[in-house]
Design a protein that fits this description.
Length: about 100
């Protein structure tokens, strides 16, 4: 499945009939099983329906960091992002990718 960023935003947990998706480096993960984390009111709800690559790399929950952009990230931050990507791969199914 290929989603535009606008389509991805519909899977942010506000519609209980839809799954919750989070993208990392353009790959979309179905994180519905982690609804308590990514659903409304959860500690990572700001990532739902978005590509959260930059925020995960920077270990940030700031809105301006919730972005697919990897520009200017340090080697250490890229390593942190890779760790997150591996954790997501182990825990959640990949359901598609985000189109630019």
């Amino acid at each position: 499945m290929e989603l535009t960023p606008q389509q991805l935003s519909q899977y942010n947990g506000t519609d209980p009939s839809k799954p919750i998706y989070v993208a990392i480096k353009g790959r979309v993960f179905d994180v519905t099983a982690g609804k308590s984390f990514y659903g409304p009111g959860g500690p990572y709800a700001m990532f739902a329906g978005k590509d959260a690559s930059r925020a995960l790399a920077k270990m940030s929950k700031n809105d301006e960091d919730v972005s697919p952009s990897l520009d200017g990230l340090s080697e250490k931050e890229i390593g942190v992002l890779t760790d997150w990507e591996n954790k997501f791969q182990a825990k959640y199914p990949v359901v598609g990718r985000v189109l630019n």
